[in-house]
Amino acid sequence: MIFRKRISTEIIILLSMLLISCKKQEPSQDLPRPAYFISIGNQQMNTGMTLVGEVKPRFESPQGFRIDGKIIGRSVEIGSKVKKGQLISRLDPSNADLALASSKADISVAEAELALAKSNLDRQKQLYEQKFISAAALDAYEAQYKYASAHLQQARAQSSLSSNNSNYTSLLAERDGIITDIHAEPGQVVNAGDVITKIADPTLLEVNIPVPESRMGNIKVGDDVIIKLWASQDKNYRGKIREIAPAADPATRSFLVKASILNPDENVRIGMTAALRMKNTKDEYFLIPSESLTEMDGKPIVWLLDEMNRAYPHVVSVSTYTEYGAQIASGLKTGDKIITSGIQVLVPGEKVIPIESSKNK
């Protein structure tokens, strides 16, 4: 009896332990994770169409020699500042000097021929007056005189040409400016008209922008624009549309638009990248960090915060991507709170601890 009573007691204890172990436990609640966010406000809204181009000089002159020859010297380098009339490069003057000396000798010969022809003509006129020669004979001497006179004029003209060619062995700057390119070196033989160097006027600068045909309806000559350098984004420059290409580029199907920079300073340099914003267009968009965008079901979305600090996905329309972020054309409004970090691990309705991002301050 005692043995049976002990077994019954042990069975009761074992069953009690099994019942306790099978009791359903309440799941532990995970703590909300922190999430950085930005608030959409006026500082994120931009108005006007923004385009990207390159700073170019309005005037850039390719320069070359006007005669053939061998370069024997160059006195400038890329980046050198030059004044009008300053020596840039020189050709070997030997051939030009010889041609000039030959042309001067031709003048002496022609002058001698003219003096002889005039002397003969004067004597023949006296003989004609005395009826010793006929009129036809006199005409022949007059023709010789006219030929000698014309020959002298030709020799003088050729001498002037040779003198010019002798001066053309020196390539001089046509304007004040800066050397932007060099295409020939000492020892190189060049032909007349070959580009040796390029001189740009750094005081008159403009931005050249290829504009897609879909945006051409919003641009016209004389429009005011705002120009900002990518290398110096803290300053805006005033600009004005100066020229619009009448035809699209056959390769890119874009129109070249040139905007003059009205207040350039020493920070604006040729070749820099510049962003140009049109002031007269009505395009409005919100600029947000690119890392706050993701995709869901093939559509671009951002994660927004509601009043209860819960995250939920929201579909937006992206206008374009820039160096500064993504331009959102629709889907956002002022006051929306966008999560900017950790969006890949969020689930709809998840509660987070919001932390305002430094980008929003």
Supply the number of structural domains: 4
Continuous helix count: 3
Structural class: alpha+beta
Mean pLDDT: 85
Could you tell me the number of beta strands?
24
Distance between the termini: 84 Å
Order of helices and strands: HEEEEEEEHHEEEEEEEEEEEEEEEEE
Gyration radius (Cα, Å) is 44 Å
Low-confidence regions: 1-5, 23-28
CATH class assignment of the largest domain: Mainly Beta
How would you summarize the topology of this molecule?
Blueprint: H1 2-21, E1 33-39, E2 45-47, E3 50-57, E4 60-63, E5 69-74, E6 81-82, E7 87-91, H2 94-129, H3 135-167, E8 170-172, E9 177-182, E10 189-190, E11 197-200, E12 205-212, E13 224-229, E14 236-244, E15 254-261, E16 273-278, E17 284-288, E18 294-296, E19 299-305, E20 311-315, E21 317-322, E22 325-330, E23 337-339, E24 352-356
Parallel strand pairs: 1-24
Antiparallel strand pairs: 1-23, 2-17, 3-12, 3-16, 4-11, 5-7, 5-10, 6-9, 7-8, 9-11, 12-15, 13-14, 13-16, 14-15, 17-22, 18-19, 19-20, 21-22
Structure description:
The chain is of the alpha+beta class. It has four domains: 33-45 and 285-360, conserved putative lor/sdh protein from methanococcus maripaludis s2 fold, CATH 2.40.420.20; 50-58 and 204-281, Elongation Factor Tu (Ef-tu), domain 3, CATH 2.40.30.170; 60-92 and 169-200, Beta Barrel (OB fold (Dihydrolipoamide Acetyltransferase, E2P)); 94-167, Orthogonal Bundle (Helix Hairpins), CATH 1.10.287. Helix content is 25%, strand content 35%. The protein has three helices and 24 strands. The strands form six sheets. The protein has a six-stranded antiparallel β-barrel with strand order 3-12-15-14-13-16. Strands 2-17-22-21 form a four-stranded antiparallel beta sheet, with no helix packed on it. The protein has a four-stranded antiparallel beta sheet with strand order 4-11-9-6, with no helix packed on it. Mean pLDDT is 85; it is low at 1-5 and 23-28.
